[in-house]
Structure formats: structure tokens, C-alpha cells
Amino acid sequence: MDYPHIARQTSRVLSSYLTYQAVRVVVAQLSQTDPPLAIWLNGFSVTGKIQDGERYLEELLRERQELALRVMTVREHLAENILDVLPEMVQAEIHQANTQQRKHHLERLTQVAPSELASWPELES
Amino acid sequence: MDYPHIARQTSRVLSSYLTYQAVRVVVAQLSQTDPPLAIWLNGFSVTGKIQDGERYLEELLRERQELALRVMTVREHLAENILDVLPEMVQAEIHQANTQQRKHHLERLTQVAPSELASWPELES
Question: Which HAMAP family does the entry link to (chains A, B) (predicted)?
Fold first, then answer.
């Protein structure tokens, strides 16, 4: 498995996702202080272009630079404050999800055909 | 900012993304050892349902349990091997992207109207 390559791709996806979360934070803040601007930013952000965080910011910088700068500041804050807890959270989540999937699958199998279980040694571990 | 809530959402997105990457790893492995099965898994996985990793695995467990178990094992390996490097990578990536965005925006501004810069003190820092 090409771990470095997968890590780089995952890092890029995560950066874009934090940009999306930063936009949501800014929209929520604006809805308290400047509702029309919140509506504008929301409209600007729902067109699918936010999938590519950098391109989105580039366009936002052209349209409303103060909002783009604010989103950039917020995503940097988010990165500083939530990234450190993520490895443990995700590892626990995947471990728990795998256990649940195996358990539910075992339950479905035992409901349908108990004899099939004998051919599935992975479940015993 | 509700950091714990954003961290939980990000963790869920990351788990799903690692499931997607695990599927890609298994497809690549199968294309060497069992091409028809690789094609089957690819077809099963491109229909958009992989967006929700757990639901996808639930269906795959019903259709081809050995493949689902393999994807689950691979995503656990991925989590163990790439998550620890992610916080630093993503933080560096966002910091670098922010610097680039500010730089390019400054370049665009100076090309268009140098006088506008005076009203943008954020760029000086």
C-alpha cells in the first residue's frame, strides 16, 4: 500500500473539508451580525464549487476579499484546534464501526442460516 | 466556535474517506490477482453509495462478505498508518495555501489597481 500517496490525498481532502467548515462558521457568525451578508455568502457557497477549497477561495477573494480572508483565518484556527484530536477519534471510530459491522452481519447470518457461520472463521477472532 | 462538534463531523468524514481509499486499495490488489472481481467491486462502488461508508459496507457484506471484511481490515490498517502524520500535514498545507492565496491576490490587486493596496492592511502582516 502506498501510504505516503494516500496520506497526501487524505490531507488535501481534509484541508478542503476544513475550508467548508470554516465557511459554515463564518455564515453562522454573520447571521448574527449581518444577516444579508450571511445570505449572500451562503448563496455563493452552495453552488458546488466549495468542493475545491482553493478555487472557491480564489473566487471569493475576487468577489469579497474581506470574507475570503476571514474564512482563511477561521480554517487556520480550526486546523490548530481540532486536528490533534482527530487521529485518535478516527481510529476509535473505525475500530468501533468494524466491530459493529461484524456483529450485525453475524446477527443477520444467524437469523438466515446458522450453518453458514462455520465457514466464516474471521468472526471468531 | 463549537470545536468538539466540528471535530466529530470531521472525524466521520475522514472515516468515510478512508473507507473509500480502502476500497481503491482492494480494487488495485484484485486487479492483479482476480481481474473480474476487481471489475465487479469497482462497479459496485461507483454508484455513489460509497459516500456513506457504513451503509456501503453493510450492502457489501450482504453481497460479498469476503470483500467487505477485506475493506474493513484495510481501512483499519490505513487508519493506523497514516492518521498520525495528518495533523502536521494538513496544518502545513492550510498555512501554505493561505500564504499562496494572499500572495496571488496581492499580485492581482497590484496588476489591477495599485492604489487599492493602501486600504488592505491585512496584507502587510
Answer: RbcX
